[in-house]
Predict the structure.
Amino acid sequence: MNLNHVNTIDEVIAILETIIIESEKNNDPMGYFAALYQKVTINVKEGIANNYFENGPRMEQLDIVFAKRYLDAWYSCKNNEPVPLSWQRAFDLSTNYWPIVLQHILMGINAHINLDLGTAAAEISRGKNLADLENDFNKINTILSSLVHEVQDNLSAVWPALKYLLKWSGKVDDFLVDFSMKLAREGAWKYANQIANVPEPEVQVSIDERDQRVADIVHIITKPGMIAAIALGIIRITERGDVSKKIQILKKPTV
């Protein structure tokens, strides 16, 4: 896949659809994040059309550069080519039976927000004032946060055990949402400011170092502690439907 020719949000949405279809066909859990991310991208597109962002054209540029980092990682993985370590950890989880849908999604969020978003923001702002982007940067996170909550509600409706166990253990609820949103949002903007000041020849070195740090924190998602692990295990064995069915649930539009 030559991503150099991807220049619009509509093209990003179309490529995400091909990934989702392939994931459904192969019962591949890697499709969980793709389904959520397509919804995020559609919401960003609608936000641009409705003047939700301060600078629509800049936001489309950010969305495309941001998305390409995920798409490049996905296609590289499928072609057995090198992948950023944080993305490799997320993709590796797809062969593990025990992670629930939201853990797969959070692994994608970890890589895409903590590594890719700050990198993309700095890239489109190089030679400009990065601070001008901060409000729109935060609005993307707001969209993602609302959709993660929506996913949690949708899956709870299908698998009642999820709803009851989340109420039983507030720690699990915090793990599912607060980690991805609070830590990732703050870290991504901090990193954007950091890499924006890195000389061009040293940018890739900085990205590689950041990638290693992001990959090192995935244990927060994969090994959240005994109480959460027990709750998540119960949720996993009570989930109904195959991977394809779950992806279809994630694709359902916002009501």
User: Anything to note?
Assistant: The chain has a mean pLDDT of 84. The two ends are 33 Å apart (CA to CA). DSSP finds twelve helices and no strands in the chain.
